[in-house]
Amino acid sequence: MLTAKDFEKLNFWEDTTPEENITVYGMDFAESYIFITDDNGATPADPKKPLIIAAYDENGSFLWFNELPDFAALQSICQGKEAASDELLEAIRTYVKPQE
After folding, report:
1. How far is CA 1 from CA 6, 18, 45, 47, in A?
2. What is the pLDDT of residues 45-55, one digit of tens each?
3. Which residues contact 19 (CB under 8 A, 6 or more apart)?
4. Is the dihedral of CA 90, 78, 84, 32 positive or negative?
5. Phi then psi dihedrals of residue 79, to 5 deg
6. Where exactly are the structural domains of the chain?
């Protein structure tokens, strides 16, 4: 079961959305931010299920999204990259799931 502590270790913050009343995890970047949900738009709970990363500009306008196969993929992307860095944001944006 994923918890806030799992995301906190990767320097993501936790927030509750007022409209959907779900917990999302996010990170702020220079001119944008990202939210992480599960593939149903709900709070991520299962580390083996896909994660949806949605990016928004500073005004809250949607920019892009990407799907990661699981929490381990997010951990791998974050490893060795500074939190809130352009390098991390680009690695998340351009992630491509390996062929099986």
Report:
1. 9, 23, 5, 6
2. 999 999 999 99
3. none
4. positive
5. -60, 125
6. 4-43+57-93
